């Protein structure tokens, strides 16, 4: 068969197994292969130019201070229809930007991105832009790019108080993530109403993420009360008709299971008001979990939540809630760690003890049980035996169980890349 007759879709599938650094040489074999490889080479683009030398967030993790973004931008602007399948602008589907731009640069940047008609995902660190009207460019991109469905923003202190905007421009988004990046030691988290309005403007989103994290340079920059409950209380007044997934954290202080089961918290009220919500993800910094008591008033469950993912510590608390009876998927995450990390190695043993002392565990809707183990010592016979015993007791109360898994690989995370300095544990409700 003539290689030029092979459908490009098949060639792209083959090339997806080729290491990225080898794609350029592979694309020189013939025009057909080159066309397919070209689309893969520029499917994701990174525009980085910062004075810090590196940047890390739940979505981004790179150490190169400069990828010379202006070169790629000007190359895209110079493209013509004669370039055919070798137009970079038609290949880019995911764009990540951390670029300290002035007014002129941001206009040029906007002109280039407007040519990316297949762009689906935009991750933009606007916290590195000081006193520049980035939001005008964002709204224009959301209006003009027909396939743009996901926007992730990292906002700094100087970008919080944005002016009134045409919020209708965000109506086409399916995913919105907003992160807050402290840049100065005196930073105070006072989230203005304009940020709330920005979120509310994305009425058709199916996924919403909010997070903030203490600065590496100024670890005490964030006060203990970030104000996440205030944010959630304000958002709870609004309904997102298509929202099925909500993620919150990590924050300087923990967002605990208590907030999803206690009606006095904004997170509980927000979850109750979202009729399509099926999954709530709460992230906390590793080792930050604090002990707390669940009173009798904290037992009302959120009807739509069917999945829980958390540590042995949280599963112990979960067993005391009505919520456990409606769960269909339960994943227990156990991380072996040294005492210096603030995590007790005995939590799996503690959970086993609780289960053995609990009579009549009932999981009437449970279809899947999984225990994920990571860290040093995960393969020891004691840990494996504990894991099997924990799952065995839980399975005995699950008449509809279809899946039972013990995994010794690191549990997955929805973050694209997490910095080693910001190890996280996750709970999915």
UniProtKB/TrEMBL annotation:
<dbReference type="Pfam" id="PF00646">
    <property type="entry name" value="F-box"/>
</dbReference>
<feature type="domain" description="F-box">
    <location>
        <begin position="1"/>
        <end position="45"/>
    </location>
</feature>
<dbReference type="InterPro" id="IPR001810">
    <property type="entry name" value="F-box_dom"/>
</dbReference>
<protein>
    <recommendedName>
        <fullName>F-box domain-containing protein</fullName>
    </recommendedName>
</protein>
<dbReference type="InterPro" id="IPR036047">
    <property type="entry name" value="F-box-like_dom_sf"/>
</dbReference>
């Amino acid at each position: 068969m003539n290689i030029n007759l092979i459908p490009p879709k098949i060639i792209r599938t083959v090339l997806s197994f080729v290491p990225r650094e080898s794609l350029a040489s592979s694309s020189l074999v013939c025009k057909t292969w080159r066309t397919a490889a070209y689309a893969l080479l520029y499917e994701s683009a990174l525009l980085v130019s910062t004075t810090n030398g590196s940047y890390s967030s739940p979505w981004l993790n790179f150490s190169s201070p400069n990828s010379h973004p202006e070169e790629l931008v000007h190359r895209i602007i110079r493209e013509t229809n004669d370039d055919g399948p070798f137009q970079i602008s038609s290949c880019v589907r995911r764009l990540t930007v951390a670029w300290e731009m002035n007014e002129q640069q941001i206009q040029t940047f906007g002109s280039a991105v407007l040519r990316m008609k297949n762009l689906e995902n935009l991750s933009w660190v606007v916290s590195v832009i000081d006193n520049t009207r980035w939001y005008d460019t964002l709204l224009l991109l959301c209006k003009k790019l027909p396939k743009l469905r996901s926007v992730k923003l990292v906002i700094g202190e100087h970008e919080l108080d944005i002016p009134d905007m045409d919020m209708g421009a965000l109506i086409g988004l399916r995913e919105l993530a907003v992160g807050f990046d402290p840049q100065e030691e005196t930073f105070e988290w006072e989230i203005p109403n304009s940020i709330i309005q920005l979120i509310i403007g994305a009425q058709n989103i199916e996924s919403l993420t909010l997070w903030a994290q203490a600065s590496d340079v100024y670890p005490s920059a964030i006060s203990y009360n970030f104000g996440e409950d205030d944010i959630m209380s304000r958002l709870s007044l609004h309904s997102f008709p298509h929202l099925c997934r909500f993620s919150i954290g990590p924050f300087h202080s923990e967002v605990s299971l208590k907030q999803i089961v206690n009606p006095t918290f904004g997170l509980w009220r927000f979850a109750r008001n979202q009729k399509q919500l099926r999954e709530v993800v709460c992230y906390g910094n590793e080792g930050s979990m604090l002990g707390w008591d669940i009173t009798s008033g904290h037992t009302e469950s959120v009807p739509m939540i069917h999945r829980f993912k958390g540590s042995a510590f949280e599963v112990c608390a979960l067993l005391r809630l009505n919520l456990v009876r409606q769960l269909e998927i339960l994943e227990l995450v156990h991380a072996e760690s040294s005492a210096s990390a603030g995590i007790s190695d005995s939590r799996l043993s503690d959970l086993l003890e609780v289960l053995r002392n609990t009579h009549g565990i009932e999981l009437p809707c449970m279809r899947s049980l999984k225990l994920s183990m990571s860290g040093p010592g995960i393969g020891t016979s004691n840990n494996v035996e504990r894991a099997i015993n924990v799952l065995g007791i839980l399975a005995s109360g699950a008449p509809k169980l279809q899946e039972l898994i013990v995994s010794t690989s690191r549990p997955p995370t929805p973050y694209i890349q997490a910095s080693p300095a910001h190890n996280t544990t996750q709970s999915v409700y």
